[in-house]
Amino acid sequence: MQAVRQCSACASRAAGGLLRLQADVSALQSKKSVLRRGAACSRFLSSSASVLISSRQATNRKTVQWKDAAQANTASLTLNPSVQQTEHLTHDSLIKRAASVVTDSTGTLLSQSTRALIDAFANYTKAVHTRIALQRRYLVSLGKLSPAEEDSLQRAIFVQKAEVSEQLTECKRLETTWIKAVNLCKMAAEAAYTSEAEQASITLRANIQLAQSHVDEARKMSAEADKKLAETKVEEIQRMAEFTSSLEDCDEHDIHEAYLRED
Known about the structure:
mainly alpha
């Protein structure tokens, strides 16, 4: 009987140990499951963090690109403010702007044509004075030059006459262009005034007056040169008449002396 009790006790202890072993195994498996879930969670969080970082980087790149595009658009609008404000401009404002542009363009045409005409008058005046100098040199040297020197001087005078004629033609051509520019400026100034661009109109009218003043001065100088040339031509006629008369007197004197010698 006692042996039976001992066997029962041993069996009980063995069963208890088995139960504890099963419990430990279950606990260990539970811990492993928890660890596996933790690792999975870590991998998920790591993957999520990578995706979030990539998304943020892409967003930042898009933001930078958008800012660059916005700055480029702003720069283009700054360079061309009419594009930015055209929607808010009235017809009168657009006409006023166009009138200002026209006054600027015609003012440039007037300035360039005025400068060209003044230079043409200056060249013409210089050519006339050169011809006058050559003509007077020829008149002073009548009867004193050798045939070769006289021929060379006459050729120089002929060339200078052609130069004067060419410069005069250029003056007339540029003066026609200048007159058209003045008329265009007057119409542009009137259009600017009626479209309420008063400042542009006033500026252009002042430029017209200044251009006319400079051209009048250049024209006056060329007119004075023409006057001197006309005086030189009169002097040439008188000098040639005197020279011819002196030659005739010399011829008559030579003939008279020859007649006396024959007697």
